[in-house]
Amino acid sequence: xxxxxxxxxxxxxxxxxxxxxxxxxxxxxxxxxxxxxxxxxxxxxxxxxxxxxxxxxxxxxxxxxxxxxxxxxxxxxxxxxxxxxxxxxxxxxxxxxxxxxxxxxx
Length: 106
What we know:
Blueprint: E1 4-9, H1 20-28, H2 35-38, E2 41-48, E3 51-63, E4 70-76, H3 79-85, E5 100-104
Parallel strand pairs: 1-2
Antiparallel strand pairs: 1-5, 2-3, 3-4
């Protein structure tokens, strides 16, 4: 199955100077996503202020405490993956409602 990247905009949670842990928590949960669609997502981009703030490698998707939502468990992506995404123009990385978008790879 081809892998995908999921871009997630966290503008309402974003604060300058967030700790790495706070940024991870704001990005990883709690999203209303198709379980069949996220099965192919192994990388998540955290987007705020129209830039990629961090890139995460997804270890697994789990049910959220919030009913009907999911969240990922993961870690900061390897340097080679981060370098690919960190300075990308994000204007095309969000869907029409501006929150998230699946980006096919390969």
